[in-house]
Specification:
single chain, 4-stranded antiparallel β-sheet, 1 helix
Length: 71
């Protein structure tokens, strides 16, 4: 069976851990970065949802939490 492109199943917003918090990676705001995220590492899944702990910095689109759903 041939491999399917992972980005076909990814939502418009993915989350990338920057070492301190999750940063949003939006398909329409930064399509190249978004398209690369599902392939960022062979050993790690792309984060599609984050379970928020109530700490939000919406100005920077960063939220602290734990990965909830991965691709």
């Amino acid at each position: 069976m041939a491999a399917l492109p992972r980005e076909l199943f990814a939502p418009d917003r993915l989350w990338q851990w920057d070492g301190h918090a999750y940063a949003a990676v939006d398909r329409h705001a930064d399509p190249d970065r978004w398209a690369a995220e599902p392939y960022a590492s062979q050993d790690a899944a792309a984060v599609t949802q984050v379970c928020f702990a109530g700490v939000t910095d919406s100005a920077n689109q960063r939220e602290r939490g734990s990965p909830l759903t991965v691709l």
